[in-house]
Amino acid sequence: MVAEKTTTIRMDARTLKRVDGIARAMSRSRAWVINHAIERYLDYEEWFVGAVKQGLKQAEAGDVVEHEVVVKAWEEKGAAKVDARR
Q: Rg of the chain over CA atoms, in angstroms?
């Protein structure tokens, strides 16, 4: 089992009220909501940092797509959406 440690954070009253509202709605404790939110935040940030590092490695290796190719692909995608709505 992972040993838990206590920490203290400061947050404005509005944010704490939102945390408490989510806790009530989910029948969870304030601590559970805060821990869950931090875990989700860390999961995302760790993924993002990894994706940026991977992208930088690809760019350094010359594995890139020219700007014009990306613009053309997005324009075609947008045109396809317009056609699908007709």
A: 22
Give the global pTM.
Answer: 0.71
Within the chain, what is the greatest distance between any pair of CA atoms?
A: 59
Distance CA 66, CA 73 (A): 11
CA distance 13 to 3: 29
As given in the structure block, the two tokens for residue 10 are: 């400061």
* Cβ neighbourhood burial of 21 (10 Å; 0-12, 13-18, 19+): exposed
With a cut of 70, list the residues of the chain below it in pLDDT. Answer: 82-83, 86
Q: How far is Cα 65 from Cα 79, in angstroms, rounded to an integer?
A: 21
